[in-house]
Amino acid sequence: MSASEKAKAKVEQAKGAVKKEAGRAAGNEQATAEGQNDKTKGSLRDAKEKVKDAFRH
């Protein structure tokens, strides 16, 4: 897994988690949904890189 893609995935997951919780705390459903979306995108990016690594070896 390229280090930059792995870092992007982790940052996206963390950003999403923070945004989701901030939205939940503020009662903002849109921010909560956007945070979940960002977190999911980070997880998918991470999974994509793991699949790419599996086929390289």
Nearest-integer average pLDDT: 92
Molecular shape: elongated
* Secondary-structure element order, N to C: HH
Cα-based radius of gyration, to the nearest Å: 13 Å
First-residue to last-residue Cα separation: 11 Å
Q: Assembly state here?
A: single chain
Helix content: over 70%
Strand proportion? under 5%
**Total helix count?**
2
For the biggest sheet, the summary is: none
Number of strands: 0
Low-confidence parts, pLDDT < 50 over ≥5 residues? none
* Structural class label: mainly alpha
Describe the structure.
With 57 residues, the chain is mostly helical. Helices cover 91% and strands 0% of the residues. The chain is built from 2 helices and no strands. It is elongated, with a radius of gyration of 13 Å. The mean pLDDT is 92.
How do the strands and helices of this protein lay out in sequence?
Blueprint: H1 3-26, H2 29-56
Helix pairs in contact: 1-2
Keywords summarizing the entry:
57 residues; mainly alpha
Structure at a glance:
The chain is mainly alpha-helical and 57 residues long.
